[in-house]
């Protein structure tokens, strides 16, 4: 029985120009994505900063689904529609679907998408194999199951991007190349020139860092400032508490020269860097 985790922030791109449109807008090589498979991808702004990070599913020849584990599908749809012009593509945010955890084994082939029960099943990275089914919501969300799922995201250092952090980070700071979410040698897409220049010439000074946190408060919220003394060195991407609410782990983007320093957040969390 699938365990419901959370609402699925899901954007559908459909039409004879859907793949070409996505190839011209997103950072991954969408043209090389085979039907029935998925890849990580992102959408940058003109300044080369990530507006959204998502799992891109190639459903068939004329349909893609972009699933944002964190983010806002409606906001991305509305922003993307400004670039459709004469392309034969329909952009729609899918309502009423949820992300579910399956206890069955993941698909045999890597990054395969399997149509199942009116939705789609796929394996995701983590320390242990895990399978997601995205489809019509089945029951109430299970907060404990979602917390464990998010811990697996964090352990895999997946740079999930909440809507409030859109336009904050360049691809290198999110380590998008590590998860094969960006290509610097394909045709143009928004922000490509800036991102490619930074890639080939260097100059990025921020990276991902996992912290263990302790606090009497709840887990740090996405966007919380990371401080060393009174100096801001970065921001929290997301965090998840352990069994209680007072300690857990957080993934942040911070400056290289302060990654190994103890830190705090503006809400008073004490942060210890994990190797």
Notes on the structure:
The chain is of the alpha+beta class and 275 residues long. The protein folds into two domains: 3-164, Gyrase A, domain 2 (2-Layer Sandwich); 206-273, Aminomethyltransferase beta-barrel domains (Elongation Factor Tu (Ef-tu), domain 3). It contains five helices and 16 strands. The strands form three sheets. The chain has a six-stranded antiparallel barrel. A five-stranded antiparallel β-sheet has the order 1-7-10-9-8. It has a five-stranded antiparallel β-sheet with strand order 3-4-5-2-6, with helices on one face. The chain is globular. The chain starts with a strand and ends with a strand. This is Aminomethyltransferase folate-binding domain-containing protein.
What keywords describe this structure?
275 residues; alpha+beta; Gyrase A, domain 2; Elongation Factor Tu (Ef-tu), domain 3; 2 domains; six-stranded antiparallel β-barrel; five-stranded antiparallel beta sheet; 5 helices; 16 strands; 16% helix; globular; Aminomethyltransferase folate-binding domain-containing protein; YgfZ/GcvT; YgfZ/GCV_T_CS
Provide a short characterization of the protein structure.
By secondary structure, the protein is α+β, with helices and mostly antiparallel strands. It has two domains: 3-164, 2-Layer Sandwich (Gyrase A, domain 2); 206-273, Elongation Factor Tu (Ef-tu), domain 3 (Beta Barrel).
């Amino acid at each position: 029985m699938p365990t419901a985790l959370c609402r699925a922030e899901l954007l559908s791109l459909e039409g004879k120009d859907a793949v070409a449109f996505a190839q011209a807008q997103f950072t991954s090589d969408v043209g090389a994505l085979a039907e029935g498979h998925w890849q990580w991808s992102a959408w940058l702004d003109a300044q080369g900063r990530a507006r959204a990070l998502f799992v891109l599913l190639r459903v068939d020849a004329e349909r893609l689904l972009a699933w944002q584990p964190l983010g806002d599908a409606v906001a991305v749809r509305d922003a993307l529609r400004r670039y459709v012009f004469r392309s034969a593509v329909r952009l729609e945010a899918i309502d009423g679907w949820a992300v579910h955890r399956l206890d069955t084994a993941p698909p045999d082939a890597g990054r395969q998408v399997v149509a199942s029960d009116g939705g789609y099943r796929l394996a995701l990275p983590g320390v242990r194999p895990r399978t997601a089914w995205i489809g019509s919501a089945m029951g109430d969300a299970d907060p404990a199951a979602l917390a464990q799922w998010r811990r697996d995201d964090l352990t895999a250092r997946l740079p999930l991007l909440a809507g409030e952090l859109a336009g904050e980070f360049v691809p290198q700071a999110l380590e998008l190349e590590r998860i094969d979410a960006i290509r610097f040698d394909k045709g143009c897409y928004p922000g490509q020139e800036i991102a490619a220049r930074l890639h080939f010439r260097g100059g990025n000074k921020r990276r991902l860092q996992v912290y263990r946190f302790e606090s009497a408060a709840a887990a740090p919220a996405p966007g919380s400032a990371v401080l060393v003394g009174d100096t801001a060195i970065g921001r929290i991407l997301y965090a998840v508490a352990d069994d209680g609410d007072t300690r857990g782990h957080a993934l942040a983007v911070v400056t290289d020269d302060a990654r190994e320093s103890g830190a705090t957040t503006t809400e008073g969390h004490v942060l210890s860097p994990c190797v």
